[in-house]
Description:
Blueprint: H1 4-13, E1 18-22, E2 25-28, H2 29-45, E3 53-57, H3 62-73, E4 77-80, H4 87-97, E5 101-105, H5 109-115, E6 123-127, H6 135-143, E7 158-160, H7 161-167, E8 182-188, E9 196-201, H8 202-215, E10 227-229, H9 236-247, E11 253-255, H10 261-271, E12 275-278, H11 280-288, E13 302-305, H12 312-322, E14 326-332, E15 336-340, E16 351-355, E17 359-364, E18 378-384, H13 395-401, E19 402-405, E20 408-419, E21 424-430, E22 434-437, E23 440-443, H14 444-452, E24 457-467, E25 471-480, H15 489-497, E26 508-511, H16 525-537
Parallel strand pairs: 1-11, 3-4, 3-5, 5-6, 6-7, 10-11, 10-12, 12-13, 13-14, 25-26
Antiparallel strand pairs: 1-2, 8-9, 14-15, 15-16, 16-21, 17-18, 18-20, 19-20, 20-21, 22-23, 24-25
Amino acid sequence: MNLFTPLELMCQKYPDKPAVIYLGTQFSYSKLKELIERFATALYDLGIGGGDRVMIYLPNCPQWFISYFGAQKIGAICVPITPIYVVDDVEYIANDAEAKAIVCADTNFGYVKQVLPKTALRKVIVTNLVDLLPWYKRAFGKILDRVPEGHVSRDKDTYFFRELIGRYPPQPPSIEVTGDQLAYLLYTGGTTGFPKGVPGTHRFFLNSILDMMEMHQDYIREGEHKLAQMVPLFHIMGQLIALATSLYKGNPLVLLPRVNLDGLFEAIQRYILTLMIGVPTLYRMILEHDRVDLYDLSSLKYCFCGGDVLPFEVYKRWQQKFKIPIYQIYGSTEVSTVSLSPLDREPPSGSIGKLLPSQRTMIIDPDTLEPVPLNEVGELLVTTDYMMDGYWKKPEETAQSFIKADDRVWYRMGDLVRMDEEGQIYFEDRKVDMIKTKGYRVAAAEVERVLQDHPAVIATCAVGVPHPVVGERIKAFVVLKEDARGVTAHDLIRWCRERLAAYKVPDYIEFRDMLPKSKVGKLLRREMRDEERRRVAK
């Protein structure tokens, strides 16, 4: 069994029912299956086969699902990345994954073109956000200048998505794809400053999806719900929710290409949506939006939050306004979903849910690695069947994050938690040097590495500063070389913007004469972080 199998079952069961609704256009389950098979046929004819890595460099759109399942249909491995990555990110991941092909939006083609000579990428498939919409919608969008377009230079190895699915029949080769084969490589922030690839098999990801479906089976039923999907699909949480609540359950998924609250409100009202997934920032933005009361959002029944800890005041305000709770999803790219809030009760304050059936955990003292008693705070370790035992080509980071105990490999979540007698898990603090901002994980080391590449910088330290809206803001402390003259915070932020994705760029720069270090010369980042937290708390 592979990731395409449950979707095929839904396509057989509900061929005429909407699978994806995008910018007002409905794609039935049978149509989605046809497009996936056309794309799979095209990929195979272009020389992409079993084990080849295919990057998906797209925002939320039907082409994302078509590329994802089309590649997996022929045994290729998907490498989804955020569409806001810039040249350095794309080049690094393409080389690290040894990717052979990339599917990108035309607005990002310029970045792809720059990295082609430096990578093993040989096939580029380009699409526009409105490629699969009816001709009149594409025409009106262009006339009204509502469709962003990028310049694409055509050559023998550059193809247009729309032309490929029009040219090839829905007749991919019959290739057996087993559950033990790799389905994807997802990249997450690395503590060394470089993204690290997390491999996952078809069996591992299916196991996690089926766990989620089992926990919610009495509440999110087949054919009874509709999901508002604004969370990006390159993120594992977006993929899990899209499959577990919608495409694997015969439920329509309303796909929004970017964060637009009025567009979200309109979709909820128009399609009578019952499910929504978001990060804490999204829920706060909705509550503070000055036009939210102009829409009827009463159809919402189950709202899920992940990517970061939900502030209690946001939870209470949401419950008071909409008379429904927000249910938590907690996990990581390495182990998928770890815990969920049960839907049969209101989540306890501060809880990040209860374990999925197949997940096993230990809460340990991070110094002694010994288990701690119930209700005591410790570091969370997770293990589950079929999970991989390390990162893609990253032995040092694997050794830091994966440990062996009780004849199993355990992943160190890097979070400090406690568990009560009912099995509810409560988040207490973050152990690793990761900054959580706007639902993204940013490695402090990556920001520091880019700043230290500046010729005037001798030392730097990046930390997360608590912020009520986005979780944390990124602040960098910088020590300049003695002979540096005229270098400003604006100069350094501009330097970062040219080398980092937008969400990784520091919000603040503070100059220091020196940074605190331990006796062995290790940067005391926690001391700087605690200093900022005390300052914010005043």
